[in-house]
């Protein structure tokens, strides 16, 4: 029967709405009658107690290796962060952090920042996943979401399919999330019986499941991370003493350091088992408990007369996607003194925290010499750039289609810019270098975009005029312009890979020569940090996020233009035309006008018909002493046949490359049992006509020009696919994957060598992969994220 009466339809709709709402209410009332009303429980066991030791030694490893691999950071499904005891107790929320269409900025829900207790999180709308009613075994397993999800998975394991039905399973980043409360669990179990946890992955073993169920039944008692030892606390005290000196010079220095390191994980390099710390702002001085100042941005008004900078131990499991280790030592402390304290300059007053000042580092820190600021950032350039690669801005295709899939980064030698005229130029351009964050988290995109576009044009005109004078006759426009790391610092060059909706940055020049290259100077590096790290609010409205992404277009083109200035004048235009094939009229005019008004000839003598390749060869030679070989696959210990297979994999291009995922992790089991298992990463580099299109990226794709980069070790936080290959079979695998022509061919390859998300041995493979990675790189390694594993 078809109902045509719209009023009847509406009545049916509201009946169903109230019916299902009523079911949840009824379930809540029923739970209340059975187990009492809910209230947060005290779950943190006393340190060193048997219960705490049981959690740390037995329960926590299972949660980390089976749950945290999907539930960590801002993009954890349902905001359920299981990377800490406090996060598990906080529970879940139906609100999404990454919501690019919201009209107004959302309230922040940052773990350990925006609330300090479970009860406070309940007031913010978070629902428990642990039972908060009467604490009995029956209640703890019947009235807890986590327990019910585990039981659901055990009773409904994955269907016997290698590739799950895409009509029934959605693994997209923006998928609808159910996020059931305990009152909604019965309905969830009926509607989605196969969606127990872990979602879309094999069930955990019976032994692991029993450990977790027993732990839940007994009240889910947990333990916090142990406090640092006395030796480490002494180092903390020394650093906090430095950062909290009373002079205006020291206070300004500490503010600058904090605003650049607040997302990093600080550690002491001489500790045998390093503990990681966050640098935070506190109302209390060293020696007293930290009273955290919680603001949206690191430069927002703290609301106190004096800010203290404190070391707060990281209480969450280290996961690769947010882990940015930053080494501290006595030598680093001496370096900070050399950069910021010893130079002779006066700090007359501290800068305002008002957004039109604080959001622009060229204004707020103008009293600190440019040379000091620039050297501070490039000393650890990977960490600086990593902020926008691993920070909250870096999530999703729209946020990342502002960069190419593979490019190299060089830096202007600070010695070339250490002159009074450079300082004066940056000060004169402060107004033209304003950033979107000055409008805070609610922004109207169109009006602000036009304004920032005009100011960037004015800055580039002024910059080109300044450089035309500074580099008259091209006398300094040579490879001497490029920083060589002072012949010891391996941060002198970086490689950035974009993996569609995630990205990676590493030291050195990894892979073959890329299509585009950036050369970064002080102002560009500073603006990238304040645009995408210090100034970006992941909870901001769509206008803030959109303008931030669009502004990054300017900064990318500026970095590319800096590189092009080293090429012959006519080649600059040819390269831009190639990099921006099919660009719209407005962008073309911008590129031909503002970007290219610098017309000084290069001082480099070229001898071939491919000056870009020649220049990159010169720069590789110049930086050879500081180029790391950590990711060089030719350093592997495989036999000759295995090594030849690696070369074959690295040459995959065109259609074969376009059929591959963005990131594939490869485990190769050695022929000789005494040799160590080797790990590799196969990265697909997607080719584009240009990357200026905001929404229709696919129309700019050049699939026939796709290629790959093979590296030794794991590179990337979000694997899309896994291969598990015996060394003796590697040549055969390389031959097969190099000849695939269709999706069916790729699936046939995975049938033989892949470890799909449905594989029975998925978890044992995962454990071995993470274990080897941790052994190889104990400081840098963190747990991988499995939210992007493909279903192919």
From TrEMBL:
Transmembrane segments: none annotated. Keywords: Isomerase, Signal. GO terms for molecular function: isomerase activity. The keyword Isomerase applies. The keyword Signal applies. InterPro entries: Fatty_acid_cis-trans_isomerase (IPR010706). Pfam families: CTI (PF06934). Residues 1-26 form the signal peptide. It comes from the Bacteria. This is Fatty acid cis/trans isomerase. It comes from Photobacterium pectinilyticum.
């Amino acid at each position: 029967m078809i109902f045509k009466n719209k009023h009847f339809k509406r009545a049916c709709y509201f009946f169903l709405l109230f019916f299902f709402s009523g079911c949840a209410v009824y379930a809540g009332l029923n739970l209340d009658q059975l187990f009492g009303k809910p209230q947060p429980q005290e779950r943190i066991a006393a340190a060193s107690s048997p219960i705490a030791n049981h959690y740390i030694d037995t329960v926590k490893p299972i949660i980390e290796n089976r749950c945290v691999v999907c539930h960590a950071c801002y993009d954890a499904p349902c905001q359920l962060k299981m990377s800490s005891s406090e996060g598990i107790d906080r529970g879940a929320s139906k609100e999404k952090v990454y919501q690019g269409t919201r009209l107004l900025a959302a309230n922040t829900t940052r773990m350990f920042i925006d609330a300090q207790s479970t009860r406070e999180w309940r007031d913010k709308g978070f629902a428990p996943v642990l039972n908060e009613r009467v604490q009995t075994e029956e209640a703890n397993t019947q009235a807890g979401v986590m327990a019910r999800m585990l039981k659901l998975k055990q009773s409904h394991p994955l269907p016997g399919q290698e590739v799950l039905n895409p009509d029934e399973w959605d693994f997209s980043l923006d998928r609808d999330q159910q996020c059931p409360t305990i009152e909604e669990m019965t309905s969830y179990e009926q509607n989605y019986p196969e969606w127990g946890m872990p979602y879309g992955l094999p069930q955990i073993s019976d032994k692991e499941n029993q450990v977790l169920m027993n732990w839940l039944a007994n009240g889910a008692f947990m333990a916090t991370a142990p406090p640092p030892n006395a030796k480490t606390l002494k180092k903390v005290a020394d650093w906090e003493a430095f950062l909290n000196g009373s002079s205006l010079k020291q206070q300004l220095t500490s503010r600058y350091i904090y605003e650049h390191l607040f997302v990093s994980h600080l550690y002491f390099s001489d500790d045998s088992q390093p503990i990681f710390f966050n640098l935070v702002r506190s109302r209390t001085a060293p020696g007293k408990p930290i009273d955290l100042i919680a603001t949206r941005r690191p430069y927002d008004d703290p609301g106190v007369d004096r800010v203290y900078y404190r070391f707060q131990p990281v209480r969450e499991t280290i996961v690769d996607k947010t882990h940015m280790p930053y080494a501290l030592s006595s030598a680093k402390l001496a370096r900070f003194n050399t950069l910021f304290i010893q130079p002779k300059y006066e700090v007359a007053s501290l800068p305002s925290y008002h957004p039109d000042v604080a959001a622009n580092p060229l204004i707020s820190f103008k009293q600190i010499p440019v040379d000091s600021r620039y050297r501070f950032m490039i000393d650890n350039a990977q960490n600086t750039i990593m902020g926008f690669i691993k920070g909250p801005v870096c999530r999703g295709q729209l946020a990342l289609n502002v960069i190419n899939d593979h490019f190299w980064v060089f830096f202007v030698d600070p010695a070339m810019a250490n002159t009074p005229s450079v300082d004066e130029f940056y000060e004169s351009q402060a107004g033209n270098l304003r950033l979107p964050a000055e409008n805070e988290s609610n922004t109207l995109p169109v009006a602000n975009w036009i304004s920032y576009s005009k100011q960037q044009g004015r800055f580039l005109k002024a910059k080109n005029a300044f450089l035309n004078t500074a580099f008259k006759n091209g006398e300094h426009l040579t490879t001497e312009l490029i920083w060589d790391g002072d012949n010891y610092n391996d941060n002198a060059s970086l490689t950035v890979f974009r993996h569609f909706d995630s990205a990676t940055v590493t030291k050195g020049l990894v892979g073959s020569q890329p299509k585009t290259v950036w050369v970064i100077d002080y102002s560009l590096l500073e603006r990238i940090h304040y645009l995408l790290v210090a100034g970006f609010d992941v909870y901001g409205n769509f206008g803030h996020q959109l303008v931030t992404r669009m502004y990054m277009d300017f900064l990318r083109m500026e970095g590319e233009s800096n590189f092009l200035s080293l090429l012959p004048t006519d080649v600059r235009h040819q390269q831009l035309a190639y990099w921006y094939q099919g660009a719209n009229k407005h962008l073309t005019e911008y590129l031909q006008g503002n970007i290219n008004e610098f017309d000084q000839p290069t001082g480099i003598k070229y001898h071939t018909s491919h000056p870009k390749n020649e220049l990159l060869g010169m720069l590789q030679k110049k930086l050879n002493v500081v180029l790391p070989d950590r990711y060089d696959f030719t350093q592997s210990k495989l036999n000759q046949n295995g090594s030849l297979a690696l070369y074959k994999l690295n040459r995959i291009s065109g259609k074969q490359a376009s059929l591959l995922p963005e990131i594939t992790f490869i485990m190769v089991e050695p022929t000789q049992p005494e040799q160590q298992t080797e790990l590799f990463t196969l990265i697909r580099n997607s080719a584009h006509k240009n990357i200026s299109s905001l929404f229709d990226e696919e129309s700019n794709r050049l699939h026939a020009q796709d290629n790959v980069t093979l590296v030794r070790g794991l590179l990337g936080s979000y694997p899309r696919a896994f291969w598990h290959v015996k060394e003796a079979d590697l040549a055969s695998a390389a031959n097969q994957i190099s000849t695939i022509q269709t999706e069916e061919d790729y699936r046939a390859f995975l049938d033989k060598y892949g470890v799909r998300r449905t594989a029975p041995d998925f978890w044992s493979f995962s454990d071995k992969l993470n274990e080897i990675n941790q052994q190889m790189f104990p400081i840098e390694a963190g747990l991988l994220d499995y939210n992007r594993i493909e279903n192919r």
